[in-house]
Amino acid sequence: MRRREPSIISIIALLILVIGIPATIVAINLGFNPFAFASPTESPAELVVANVTDTSVTVSFLTPAAPTDALIKYGTAADALNLIASDTRDLTTGQSGAYRVHTFEISNLNPGTEYFFAPVIGGTTYNNGNTPYSFETFTTLDAPAVPNPKYGSVNPTSAGALVRAHAVNDGTVSTPISTLTADNGTFTFDAGSLRTQDGEVFDLQGAEVIAVIATEDNARGGVQFDASAQPGRVAITGNSTLAYSPVLTALPETGITATPTFTTGSSPTTTPTVTVTGQPTATVTATVTPTVTATTSPGEDDSVILTAAYSGGLEQTDSSAPHTVFISNLSVNGFTVNWLTKEPTTGAVVVSSQSTQYLDNRDTSSSQSARYTHMVDIDTSDADPGDLISFQLTSNNKTFSGIEDFRFSVTVPEISDSPPSPASIEGTVDTGFTRTIDRDLIIAGQGFGGGTTWSSIPAPQSGGFSLSYGDLVDPDTGSYVSPDQIRIVAYGEYNSSDTATADPDETVALDLEPGVSFTDLRQSRSYSSPPRFTGTAPAGSTVLIDVNGTEYSATADSGGQWRLSDLSSLTAGQNTISASAAGDIVATTFSLDLELLPDTAIENWGNLAAGALLVLAGLVIKRIITVTRYQQSRG
Q1: Which of 464, 486, 512 is the last residue of a domain?
Q2: Collapsing DSSP states into helix, strand and coil, what is residue 447?
């Protein structure tokens, strides 16, 4: 009987079996999914629901990477988004345009009704990680009593720039308002239409208005002004990292319309866009932080004289960068530099004129601890009144000189009057979590009345504290301060904080809850195996996690702990991850030294299905060949 040569079909079937199985395994490890569709380069950034009334809202967001077309799908049920809203400018032109700045006016809504929505960008729907975005209209509103129009413009002129604003009054934040600039770069909005979170007319008496502007060419700018004044001409710049959030209680720097950045000895290799995403509703929570101010003195060694807390914004992309930098305990003999970091780091201060490095008050030359809070005492006993002391901060041995081309500086005060009698305010600090870092807690007090200044102390691990305020010196006047009231702020590990305002003879009780943090990831660290995605956030809050552009969500448990088990978005090499909750954000970059990453996500079922289909196809073809041969042998 003549030996039958293998047919082409037999060879193909064997190749499918031999190649299909290992190819499937490699594809799974590489994250390939043949069932996945192409998507735009980015999800909606800085998404905000503004102009909320009983029958309408405005949804706005950014796509900084590239201009794209977009629309909004919405409805009263999360699984039935059967209504469409087009970009406001498309309604005028009758055509779908491509923009980086997107705004959608949605009207004819029902009062007191919750609506769900999803942005559709470049044909891809973004549903916030299967937790649809939502907003709720107010019940029937009374018309504002008095219109309060605000007029401004942007410099340089930019048409179609997105202006978003809200008011802050004694820590209370209004709902946001938004508009676009005209062709000549001017804008206007009615501050009289601002509402409380309950829909009442917002009290603008003594309030300040915060406005942040984003343009089509990714320039940013901002202004903070008294509600009785006008915003005026707002400078915008292309290198600003200023981002809008409806819970801002102060711009990163009062009086400077573009957010400066820290000058560092080694810059991060990537600068991801900071976004405020999640489930926007009419309710927002304001986080009370110290007032941010810094004054520049170009004629004095190009220095920034710190008179109150300052943040440069770099902490939003580099969790080891300093933020909330402020000076306390100012005297003719010295001062204390205080700052925070979004992750535990070592810290010190270098004074150039003295060629001296000062360690954290809680450290020794033989033992330095990594902490979220940092405080360093500087000795100026050999300096003269009026001398300018410039210094640099170090965090994990990386140098932070100041903002842009300016250095941090403090002027040694010239004190003419005698100090008042010693005085202190007493208080207690409780934590809603287990503290793991030794003495990672700062108590700071800001006195009001006859000048403004700070004092600070490292707090004990638990129990009470006593903060002196009798020798506070106003950095602007050099006079001692006799405060009428004192604001006490506690800063602790896991980015926790609490604040209270009290009379000098009151006892203050502070309660720390964990803020947003990563408990295992560290900035610029290299890992040889996938790290754990764990962290902290306010108990019960929804945490939005972005891993290399893929969004996930988790819920913090009663102890403020959260965990993400899906590691499928990791890649070999550099990775960027951010987590946001309750209006706060932490971001970091790290390296993963792996050639292939293990698949741990159920979402990669497509890879397994593709492999199974390849194997099944080979088995079917092989069966057809067998039956054909059998029939041939019978025939």
Answers
A1: 512
A2: strand
> Which residues, other chains included, contact 353 with Cβ-Cβ below 8 Å and sequence gap of 6+?
389, 390
Pair 618, 579 in one domain: no
Q: Is residue 580 part of a domain?
A: yes
Query: The CATH number of the domain where 444 resides is what?
Result: 2.60.40.1120
List pLDDT tens digits, range 169-213: 988 999 999 999 988 888 889 898 899 988 889 999 899 999 999
Residue 101: the pLDDT is 95
Average pLDDT of the segment spanning 32-44 = 49
> Confidence class of residue 284 from pLDDT cuts 50, 70 and 90?
very low
What CA–CA distances, in Å, run from 587 to 45, 260, 310, 518? 15, 18, 19, 9
Residues 564 and 613 in one domain: no
State how many domains the chain has.
5
pLDDT digits (tens, 9 = 90+) for 150-167: 888 888 888 999 999 999
Phi/psi of residue 338, nearest 5 degrees: -120, 145
Sign of CA dihedral 250, 253, 257, 258: negative
Shared-domain flag, residues 68 and 152: no
Q: Can you tell me the distance from the alpha carbon of 521 to that of 535, in angstroms, rounded to the nearest whole number?
A: 9
Whether residues 169 and 208 share a domain: the answer is yes
- Does residue 328 or residue 459 have the better pLDDT? 328
What is the C-alpha to C-alpha distance for residues 23 and 16, in angstroms, rounded to an integer?
A: 10
**Which residue has tokens 């490890």?**
29
Peptide bond into 272 cis (omega under 30): no
Q: Which long-range contacts (CB under 8 A, 24 or more apart) does 181-187 make?
A: 181/153, 181/154, 181/213, 183/159, 184/153, 184/157, 184/159, 185/153, 185/154, 185/155, 185/156, 185/157, 185/158, 185/159, 185/161, 186/151, 186/152, 186/153, 187/151, 187/152, 187/153, 187/154, 187/161, 187/163
DSSP SS3 for 623 = helix
> Residue 28: in which H helix or E strand, if any?
helix 8-30
Question: In sequence order, what are the residues at sequence separation of 6 or more whose Cβ sits closer than 8 angstroms to the Cβ of residue 531?
Answer: 520, 521, 590, 592
Strand partners for 304: 296, 408
Average model confidence (pLDDT) for the chain? 77
pTM of full prediction above 0.70 = no
Give the CA angle between residues 194, 197, 202 to the nearest 5°.
35
Q: Which domain holds residue 615?
A: 8-31+603-634
The rounded distance, in Å, linking the Cα atoms of 496 and 556 is: 14
Q: Which of 221, 216, 227, 119 is nearest to 170 (CA)?
A: 227
**152, 194: one domain:** yes
Same domain? 131 vs 170: no
Token pair recorded at residue 534:
């764990």
Same domain, 110 and 73: yes
pLDDT, tens digit, 9 for 90 and up, residues 99-126:
999 999 999 999 999 999 999 998 888 9
